[in-house]
Amino acid sequence: MKASPLFASSRPSPKSSTRQHGSVDDPFAGERRMLRRLGFDDALIEPAETSARRNGTAIEDELLAAGAVAPEAYYRRLAFYLGLPFLASIDAGSVADRRKIDRLLASPSGLRLESGEGGATFAIIPRARDLADLHDRLSFRPAIRRAVVVTMPSSIRETVWQVGAQRRLANTIHRLMIWEPRFSARIVFWGKQGFLLGGGVATLLTGLVLFTAETLLVTHILFLMLYALSLIIRLAAVRSGHRRKAEPAAAGEDGPMPVYSVLIALYREANMIPQLVDNMKALNWPASRLDIKLVCEADDSATIAAIRAENLPPHFELVCVPPALPRTKPKALNYALSGARGSLLTIYDAEDRPHPDQLREAWRAFRKGPASLGCLQAPLIVDNIGQNWIAALFACEYSGLFRGILPFLARHRFPLPLGGTSNHFRTEVLRKCRAWDPYNVAEDADLGLRLHRLGYHCGVIGRPTLEEAPVSAGTWIPQRSRWIKGWLQTLLVALREPSRLFSELGTLGALVFLANGAGVILSSLLHPLLFVALFMTAATIVHPNYDPGPFHQLLSGIDIANILASYWVFMRLGLSRMEPQEARQMRADALYLPLYWLMLSFAAWKALAELYHAPFLWRKTAHRPSGTNDACSEEKSSGSKGQGEG
């Protein structure tokens, strides 16, 4: 909701030659003179002007972004010059939730405040370059002067977030379901899916009772085929090449850099805020072109207090999401997306330490890539490999996935199961796809598939984000069960209309998706049965009189080969993509691989059970600052964020 055109202003362009207070060549001349008149000296103005010319902003934007002046002190000074009252905070009760008011979240300019007596006041955000003209106009219009106050961009945004909270929340939760119900996981079993699944289980149980041997044999053969599918992608990735190197930084960027939005969903993360803020400040991107949103649940008072205690610069913004089910990360991200200012957007987690140049690499890749390039995935690298065997094997798994499998899939434009962080999007594409599904607990994999189904594709970049792996089974299993449950949701959504899936992805693309998704899940669920085959083979050696027959011996041999091949591919793919210093830290941790896979199977069965009784429950992974070696701290601070929980 904008104020009167009397107070409208626009951002200057460094290439503009529009007349500004007598200058036809220098678009910053008028702003520079006004800032001097307001009491700022050249020692502040000149470096800010240099940055403004480079970044395509205004001098005052750079002054505020650099922390040269506090926003409240700056806008108070502008209000004093205009002879207007200054309003540091706005009562949300004085603002009506009008149509298109959310535009002010991205571009705050002016806001109409109702007086309650039929009158209205306009809260405006004056710009230094327009201040002289605005002063002159107000001088000749005393009636308007009495109805105007000066405020700050953050005050308008904070008020608009409050005013439209419930309407925005409802839109956030239901947007995807209303737009295209077939893409939403809100209904777990769609149409005939529940009937077919129940019928399949009943048929299997009946077969086991009436035709036990035959049913087990058919199931065994089917399992071998599906297990083999999960190996094909990994074998292809092993043969596809070595580590992908990050592109060297360009000598100089061509033109101003775009505004880049960074969304960070936080829950019970008060201990992570100082580290997170330091990592975000380290990003090699102009602060005046950054839009960092720290997204919290409104009832997470500890995290909110920790953020407010940091006294953050203007390009940081706290967004509080009203409590409502489902309480998931994708719902929080969707809510914050309403106010994203950037044409490019990325998401991080609280513990992430992205490479400072990651945003620049993504920007260059988007500029070089076609319009259909909707998303880029940065690699996630575990840096606490040496802490214990769980962290080491987790790091090996991440290496194989983010530096092996995903680059292979991206190279051939196959559907990409995105990671839960360090995804970089064209914001316009993200909004067209209706962003994340608030009901899917693996919203990253779901969104990667949906992008492909809607005609876009995903790529990868080289500059990584550092993370710390879970170091205890009590933390690792809930996290992994959530991922697998989300993958099950994604598969159920994809297979609602199988023919349409094959039409949208192409036959090969659909088969690769199913092999990479269903094959991995089924292999996780049924992996313990391979050990049964191993024991049966051992029994034939220990007890010569036990003869299961040549066919069963052949199947048992294939089972053993599958186990060995799976372990070999896991280690080979992961280690071949690691840097030498990473691989050296693995030591003898590979010996724990069978136990790691049994943990994976337990997590898969746990996910299958939760899909029935708690499909939207979000198991929150507790984080800790990097370098913290107290493994028990994960357990002590762990919590769940999900259905019916806060």
Automatic annotation (TrEMBL):
InterPro entries (UniProt xref): Glyco_trans_2-like (IPR001173), Glycosyltr_2/OpgH_subfam (IPR050321), Nucleotide-diphossugar_trans (IPR029044)
Main localisation? membrane
Instruction: Please give the Gene Ontology molecular function terms for this protein.
Output: glycosyltransferase activity
The parts of the chain that form a coiled coil are none
Give me the Gene Ontology terms describing cellular component. Answer: membrane
Q: Which SUPFAM superfamilies match?
A: Nucleotide-diphospho-sugar transferases
Its placement in the membrane is given as: Multi-pass membrane protein
Cited Gene3D superfamilies: Spore Coat Polysaccharide Biosynthesis Protein SpsA, Chain A (3.90.550.10)
Q: Where is the composition biased (Polar residues)?
A: 10-21
Q: Where are the transmembrane segments?
A: 194-211, 217-237, 505-531, 551-570, 590-608
Ranges for region Disordered: 1-28, 624-646
Keywords attached to this Swiss-Prot or TrEMBL record, sorted alphabetically, are: Glycosyltransferase, Membrane, Transferase, Transmembrane, Transmembrane helix
Q: Start and end of every Glycosyltransferase 2-like domain?
A: 346-541
Where found, per UniProt?
Answer: Membrane
Q: What is this protein called?
A: Glycosyltransferase
Which organism is this protein's natural source?
Martelella lutilitoris
Q: What is the lineage of its organism?
A: Bacteria, Pseudomonadati, Pseudomonadota, Alphaproteobacteria, Hyphomicrobiales
